[in-house]
Design a protein that fits this description.
The protein has 7 helices and 5 strands, in the order βαβααβαβαβαα. By secondary structure, it is α/β, with parallel strands linked by helices. It has a single domain (2-184), classed as Flavodoxin domain (Rossmann fold, 3-Layer(aba) Sandwich), CATH 3.40.50.360. Strands 2-1-3-4-5 form a 5-stranded parallel β-sheet, with helices on both faces. The longest helix is centred in the C-terminal third of the chain and has 26 residues, at 159-184.
């Protein structure tokens, strides 16, 4: 099972990447499949003017991003909430691809510096993913006050509690991946 962790923030000093690192460690520690960290900050993408399928000669890093999303059995998307919405870096890559997202199980972990854990970003993000045919996993993983709960290496202050929540969350993603495989047989 190949799970892509999509770390959506490209800001300097970003805190949501802490949660991406936590899940990378969690998935590896529990042998839950192959983990591929897709960090949008490493791609340094421009604002795309067109979908990939209509680009005459896309850059190699764009094709690499497409391949990694395409090869994923499921995606664990980690996004911060910026003023009630999700970052433009994420919208940019959602709109870059189309068929690659369709029927792809996507689990959402939302992050905020405030007390609500990115709850406001969920509505707009789920709607965008739904419009392109992605399968949004019904479980969510909100992380309030991320800067106080996870260190820069992704280690949570309360590992037992984080792992308990993560198990339920990841079990839903794995269930959806397994169900999709069965439906495709």
């Amino acid at each position: 099972m190949n799970i892509v962790i999509l770390s959506a923030s490209v800001r300097q000093g970003r805190n949501s990447h802490r949660v991406a690192l936590y899940f990378q460690n969690y998935l590896k520690e529990n042998n839950l499949g192959t983990v591929d960290m897709v960090d949008l900050a490493e791609y340094n993408f421009p604002i795309f003017e067109e979908r990939l399928q209509y680009m005459p000669s896309p850059e190699q890093n764009v094709l690499d991003f497409q391949r990694r999303i395409n090869e994923a059995d499921g995606i664990l998307l980690i996004t911060p909430e910026y003023n009630g919405g999700y970052p433009s870096s994420l919208k940019n890559v959602i709109d870059l691809l189309y068929k690659e997202w369709q029927k792809k199980p996507i689990a959402l972990a939302t992050v905020s510096a405030g007390p609500f854990g990115g709850a406001q970003v969920t509505t707009s993000l789920v709607f965008s993913l739904w419009k392109i045919g992605a399968w949004v996993v019904p479980a969510m993983f909100p992380v309030p006050q991320v800067q106080n709960n996870y260190d820069e290496q992704g280690v949570p202050n309360d590992k037992a509690s984080a792992d308990k929540r993560a198990k339920k969350f990841i079990d839903e993603l794995i269930w959806c991946i397994t169900a999709k495989r069965k439906m495709e047989q």
